[in-house]
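re: ur question from earlier - yeah i can do the single chain one, its not a big deal. heres the input i used so u can compare w yours
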Amino acid sequence: MDTLQPLGPSTSDTSPTSKSVHWPQPTEPDLDPNSTTFLEDLHSKYFPTLSHDPSKLEWMQPATSPSPYDPSAAGIAPRDVRFDFRGALLPPSVAAALPTNLGLHHHGAAPDAAGYTVAELARLARSAFPAQRCLALQTLGRVLFRLGRGDFGDEADVAVVEPPEVGERAALAKGLWNEVEQGRVLDTLREEAAKLNGHRTCKALAEEALWNWQRGGGRTTKAV
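and the output i got, formated as tokens:
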């Protein structure tokens, strides 16, 4: 009796061999992310037909100029002082150590330091984007409250020499009030609060900020 043969091609005819099957192998990346020319290399290799403006990518590079909020600096100008979202002052050493996931870092004058200056908040309070305005309006109100009640010093003591810390805090308070006035912070708050058809949350936060300013003393006179 004849033996039955398996249907289809025999195993020997279809078994893969190392020569007939190609298995993709991982390759080493040909771009070094740590290279000083990484962005240029990336453009030339993958996007050669697109326009290239290096100036628009400068924010991705490590800062080369000294930070105005360097912890090792001998002194910090009031215009460079930075605050968190609660209106609390962030010392340079703290601002340099805070992680970026807190949302306090941005591409301003000191991208390596967390926090916002009064001038930066004043600009954001006039932003076309409601979310940015809301953040700035609320933070400014909290800064004004702390500044008004003397958390950062009393500008009336600006002539005090002893102890020196009192004079320094008074100079800081005076400088911060000058930043508030130069940035037209109170005008911005009043304008936002008075909008009839404005963004409701921005309007409410502007009213809250004015209330906090009043709670802190409602200072209206200019620093002398």
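Strands lie at 82-83, 89-90. not sure if urs matches, ping me
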